[in-house]
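Sample 3 of the quickstart, ligand s-citryldethia Coenzyme A:
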Amino acid sequence: MTASGAQAPSPFRPGLEGVPATQSSICDIDGQRGVLTYRGFRVDELAAQSTFLETAYLLIWGELPTAEELREFEQEVQMHRRVSFRIRDMMKCFPSGGHPMDALQSSAASLGLFYSRRALDNPEYIVSAVVRLIAKIPTMVAAFQLIRKGQDPIQPRDDLAYASNFLYMLTEREPDPLAARIFDACLILHAEHSLNASTFSARVTASTLTDPYAVVASAVGTLAGPLHGGANEDVLEMLESIGSEDQVEPWLDRAIAEKRKIMGFGHREYKVKDPRAVILQKLAEQLFDAFGHDPMYDLARKLEAVAAERLGPKGIYPNVDFYSGLVYRKLGIPEDLFTPIFAIARTAGWLAHWKEQLGANRIYRPSQIYTGPAGRDWQPIGAR
Ligand code: SDX
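Result:
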């Protein structure tokens, strides 16, 4: 305490590194051992055994659903997949060259125009907001993809499961079952990751008691940045710019000398290879075995090996974004949709944190250490 009895300010930590900004029971990360758990369940087990909707239910309500609970949740989500023509018409006014993350942030925020605001004390409102966002985010991502190609978006198919329906709306073809299963596992792997930047945005926005559509729109804007969710798109561009395996070492040495960040590497929490990167690498190999190899994977593995020598001693290893783009590329997904797909998955985590924040809310208002000037007198413009 200071002399005036005020709380003594904590030391400033850039990026709030190591500073707990909430208490949460949703997700735990062991950055030293490379272990990630959702509500106590290991993510590798969930990726192998669960589905995205079952995992979303676990994240949001804290327990794995019974068969009846899951069936009801799946049915609710399926019934709410469609998006108002007003939103679709709004998307048709977006420039076709605009980034799909900007289209998603705009359309996610527009959902708040259709549903009553601030009924946050009504459990039914909470459930309906969760269902609507989980159900409609994929439809809006797929809709912009077709609209920017000059086509009308196609309606969701009620006979297709969540992952299959998204790939169908995106590509206009029913996906191969293996491709759909692998895509669903990717959604599980991207669903939640404790207090990352976009989830922190979600909690800060949620703490003002605004509507959940504004919360998700805030988080989408944060995820779009290249240091966060936007890295997956940049990884492929980076690999394409390296060009061939024999260029990996000179390219990496130059990048390190120029203090450039290697996209898809490093993490605030993990000081070993991101467990999600381990699983995504295996999923990529499954796709290559089934649908043909991608030589860019060999280049990625060479980069990982050389980077382990150069950057491993600093605890810099591949993160979730390093192999995810190779999986999505094999699934025929355009590069600038990689981050919107990350947003589809992370909507589950953002909603879990929104609900948790409401359960024990206090508006976020951190302090600062003022470093500016003080006691200055006004100067008329002629005297400046
Ligand atoms: C995601 O937080 C989450 O959980 C995020 C996420 C999630 O699921 O929500 O996991 C998803 O965002 C994954 C990260 C995707 N971003 C990238 O791949 C971009 C490249 N990565 C870096 O920008 C960086 O590693 C961050 C942003 C991920 C983490 O940054 P930190 O913890 O603030 O680390 P830093 O920038 O302070 O770097 C510390 C040191 C520096 O060296 P020194 O100046 O101390 O000598 O490590 C170096 C950095 O130069 N470093 C890197 C590096 N990452 C850190 N050097 C080269 N390449 C990198 N990628």
